[in-house]
Design brief:
Layout (H helix, E strand, L loop, with lengths): L2 H12 L9 E9 L4 E5 L12 H11 L5 E10 L11 H10 L5 E5 L5 E5 H4 L12
Parallel strand pairs: 3-4
Antiparallel strand pairs: 1-2, 1-3, 4-5
Bound molecules: tetrahydrodeoxyuridine (THU).
Length: 136
């Protein structure tokens, strides 16, 4: 899928965000290596720490459906779902992506004016802690 289409899929997913506490709505769309698209939104909780970000929702949906190889993810978000600026993934989401995605996995951030920012996972999570770090 084209990057701009993946951004649109993320924007659509953002509409389902459950964010009654922060009112900050986020959507993500993840493409697998075989071309399947999994979307996600943030799902907040009254016990704030139980909140799940949009990116992790998408990754967990995909992994729970048997997918473990991914090409790219698009992320959009904004206060009250008003999407104006690029939203970067939080540290926990970067770590979760690093569990399944290669260092050159593409993270695509979009703005409604059509601006697209592309980062590799390696740029966003240098020195990621992975399974290899645990081999003695
Ligand atoms: N959020 C995401 O969904 N993804 C991120 O990478 C950044 C933060 C959500 C979590 C919370 O529901 C709201 O944005 C404010 O932090």
């Amino acid at each position: 899928m084209e990057d701009r289409e993946l951004i649109q899929a993320a924007a659509k997913a953002m509409e389902n965000a459950y964010a009654p506490y922060s009112h900050f709505q986020v959507g993500a769309a993840l493409e697998t290596e075989n071309g399947r698209i999994f979307t996600g939104c943030n799902v907040e909780n009254a016990s704030f720490g139980a909140t799940n970000c949009a990116e992790r929702t998408a990754v967990f949906k995909a992994v729970s459906e048997g997918e473990r190889k991914f090409r790219k993810i698009a992320i959009v978000g904004g206060p009250q779902g008003v999407w104006t600026e690029a939203v970067f993934p939080c540290g926990i989401c970067r770590q979760v992506m690093s569990e399944f995605c290669s260092p050159d996995f593409s993270v695509i951030l979009g703005k409604p004016d059509g601006t697209i920012y592309r980062y590799s996972l390696k740029e966003l999570n240098p020195g990621a802690f992975t399974a290899e770090d645990m081999s003695c």
